[in-house]
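Just curious: can you write whichever protein you like plus the matching structure tokens?

***
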Amino acid sequence: MSKLVIVESPPKAKTIKKFLGPGYEVMASMGHVRDLPENRLSVDVKNDFAPRYAIIKGKEELVEKLKAAAKNAECVYLAADPDREGEAISWHLAYILGLDIKDTNRVTFNEITKSGLDKGIANPRNIDINLVNSQQCRRILDRIVGYRLSPFVSQKIRRGLSAGRVQSVALRMICDREDEIRAFVPQEYWSIDAKLTAPGSKKSFPAEFYGNADGKIELTDKAQTDAILAELEGKPFTVTTMKKGTRKKTPAPPFITSTLQQEASRKLGFRSSRTMKIAQELYEGIEIGDTGAVGLITYMRTDSLRIADEARAAGNDYITKRWGDKYLPDKPHKFKQRANAQDAHEAIRPTMPDLEPEQAKPYLSADQYKLYKLVWERFIASLMAHCVHDTTNAEITCGDYIFKASGYTVHFEGYTALYESALEDKSGEATGALPKLEKDMELKAKSIDGTQHFTQPPARYTEDTLTRSLEENGVGRPSTYLAIVTTVLNREYVVREGKALRPTELGEQINKLIKERFPKIINVKFTAQMEKNLDQIEQGDKDWIETLHEFHDNFEKTLAEAKKAMEGITMKLPEEETEFICEKCGKRMVIKMGRYGKFIACPGYPECKNIKKIVNEIDADCPECGKKVVVKKSHRGRVFYGCSGYPECNFMSWNEPTKEKCPQCGKILFVRKGKVPKLACTAEGCGYERVMEEKSDT
């Protein structure tokens, strides 16, 4: 009889099977197998919130296979991911398979490598019921809010809307930022900048106006600035003080989930969903030559900065061999963790620090290589010595006024020999060296200019800045950041404009309703406190049933008050006009939302019932008749491309047509998706194709 190991995904199962060998059978649960059914609340509120779990629809056959395998196994190891959700999946599996939760059958793998798997298998433990209860509490909280608040929002605004405990907080943050932008009043300010040259030097350097002996002077308008410029005219610039020193720059810490998403967005142009998908692939296992399938990075849902001693030692060995001992710090850097960080697993790092990105590149897709390189460089750099700058700061006087100039040169490159974070604050840094300056040296002014500026409104959130703000405010956890952002986008409460997140009219109306009626429940501080409560449940310091009672009683009272206050009141959404004129009554048609999505309708309903489908055209012509190509969906939801002239023209293709012509035969080229997307000619006998140029995912 073999030992059965149950993990969450088939790729992970395949990698683990290779390492564990013939004495083990490895199966995938495909995520959760049991959950709260979607068609009802499925929580017995009157009976201490007892959840009514059921096998997830469509997973009955898989569950039977798992039961049969468990029945014939020598023992069963529950090896779902090492977090709250993984612990809950293991608990549900134990129930379904009839396993004793007091048995030591729970194993976790922080990395999918031989040593990581051996360590996990050698240290089985009980299912952590505190971790399970924390997940159950979060799941039931979300279900109660979703199932009680969503109908209220739908009734007051529009059918089919949803509201959630955390998604509504994220929406509120985005809407609050939009309100700040609207309310912002630009303030005028000015600066005076001089370009100066030292004796014997032709190269100028910048000096910025500071003030006078009494302190800094804020320049607020043109008249004030022009008056000072007039006083400066024709007067000499003289060096009055010189300060030289050194400055140490510490490397950024290794990645946690939020910083990985932020850095991948800024350096690679990846959206959070793309980043986490690739990170999952790198964690679960990649075929690397003769080595076979191996996980290249540690678990990617973490907020801990901890590094295993053996990983640090391996990284230090690599640094010493490549750059020498001087590139190691005198003592390891200590990075400050957030107060609410969980320390269940390590920071995100390469599992094999000596596997350079270029060595792994032949076995990785373009995206996998980019993300592995980012993780690898960040980790190695975090172990390296400081970067040391030689700095120079000068005060320069002109008449009664003071200018300041600064610069630096790199004395020792340290970690910057490999990597610099896109998130490092470089504002206000003057790069390069100042010329050789001495006290009382007279300088020549090449130019002195006054420049008008206006203060800028706060920027809209992007995915990465919203994730950072959620993290800083204690809202959500590494496993939920992506889901939070994805939900508000998918619900069309928020849209992307470039990288920026802008609330829609619908999103703002929902936020207005929730903010007015549930101000104490759906807000940042309350949600952050609830996250702390969940952490305390996880640590065994708080009872999950009591937590649910505390929340539910207050929530139900607030909901009842909201219903009473808004009895008979509905909120009208502004309608989005289109360019189409109703051919029946002449009114400009508007976009409406129905049971099956958006459509175009006459605003004169019910007198005029004219409606049209919304057609999503692409910038390509039908290769058969020349009319526009439109995006369509099959009855199973698969996207395909068809002619807008249907049924007169029957053209359709699973591949997206383009405007580009084949250089060999002149026919239209199509996008052929795959691991490496290509432009290809589908004309019989042609065979032309080429790899598509990559674009940033913005």
